[in-house]
Specification:
3 helices, five-stranded mixed β-barrel, alpha+beta
Length: 106
């Protein structure tokens, strides 16, 4: 009996990549500041202090060098923001290959 074809994890993962929407920017975590805050270098050339919202705090573990999706605050949009999503290394390489990452070194 033949084996049933099952797509690999990479094929499944790439099919559902979260792309930046209007008002969202990509960024790389530079340093962890403490608690749920981190210093992020964003794709628009600005450095922001970002926080991890409560709904992501215990579900998504973020470390230095990770590619994340940031939503700048309405007040202090050049200095502060919230983390929306963390990309896996496979997703980050796909974004780089397809031209979504312009000014960042992944």
């Amino acid at each position: 009996m033949a084996k049933k074809y099952e797509p690999s994890e990479e094929e499944l993962e790439i099919a559902r990549i979260r792309l930046p929407r209007e008002g969202e920017v990509l960024g790389i975590v530079e340093t962890m500041v403490g608690g749920d805050r981190m210093k992020v270098i964003c794709d628009d050339g600005k450095e922001r202090i970002c926080r991890i919202p409560g709904k992501l705090r215990k579900r998504v573990w973020i470390k230095e060098g990770d590619l994340i999706l940031v939503m700048p605050w309405k007040v202090q949009s050049d200095k502060r923001g919230d983390v929306i999503f963390r990309y896996t290394p496979t997703q980050a390489s796909w974004l780089k290959k397809n031209g979504y990452i312009k000014n960042l070194q992944v």
